[in-house]
Amino acid sequence: MQLQTVLDTGASVDTHPHFVCVFPNGKGGGNPAPIVLNADRMTSDEMMAVAARYGHESAFVCAPRDRRHSFRLRFFVPQHEMEMCGHATVGTLWLLRSLGHWNSNVATLETLSGIVEARFNERTQIIEVSQPKGVVQPVDDERLLASICKVLRIDPVDLDSLPVLNSATSRTKTLIPLRSIQRLHALSPNFEEVRSLCDALQSTGLYPFAVQSARPFQVHARQFPRSSGYPEDAATGIAAAALLYGVLHHGLLEPGVHGMNVHQGYAMNKPSLIRVELRNPDDSDSGCWIGGAVERTALERLS
After folding, report:
1. pTM of the model
2. Are residues 156 and 170 in the same domain?
3. CA distance 205 to 174
4. Which of 23, 240, 249, 262 gives a 20 to 30 Å CA spacing to 292?
């Protein structure tokens, strides 16, 4: 079945978003995303104003510049444009599919971070989007490690024995292993210092995590972004992809295991679940898939 585009370049501008919640795993869970269709005539300032109004990553669907691709997506947070947003991409494709505008099982998407592939997984009935191979770099500067503890308001003994890593697929996240899920959920960072710490780390967010189980491999994580206009994310697909490559770097996956579940948002009372797995179980260089549930949400959920 061929892709059906929703886009009509002659359509009038309609900045009224649709609202979805991505990666929910229980009542009130998931990360909300406003999504605007037919956004070609919107300016960057108008797009950023939508994100600022609702206080969440927002996606804007435009006609592809190359007609061999399915859609072009732009992403904004309240303070700037983003190259890529995992949960908003999953949510956008779910919306397009529910409205009958995407009917095949595959799509290619133009984004500022490059071409992103997507698929509808018939086995799991979820939409998955691709991320490239992760690049991992240990953070071994003692001053930076001390600053991480200071900003997160933890003692060095709260850190796991694994090294802190910078890991990137679309964006660099700082992966901070903690000894327990309880300590993770009790974190109360100094948010005023997160941005300067991320700048020193050359990172776009702090992603502390703790392992829950080995088989199936499950972790809990929290995301404190560098400068998105809000202090914490309920579910962060790009960070989950970066974490998969951190877990591979640490050698934490047992033989035969090529993916994991990332639980996020619990400390915010927004329980979320992100599934990340290698595209090719035998080749970590092939990149990974990000996927999870999506549901419609009311405007009130975005407040």
Report:
1. 0.92
2. yes
3. 6
4. 249
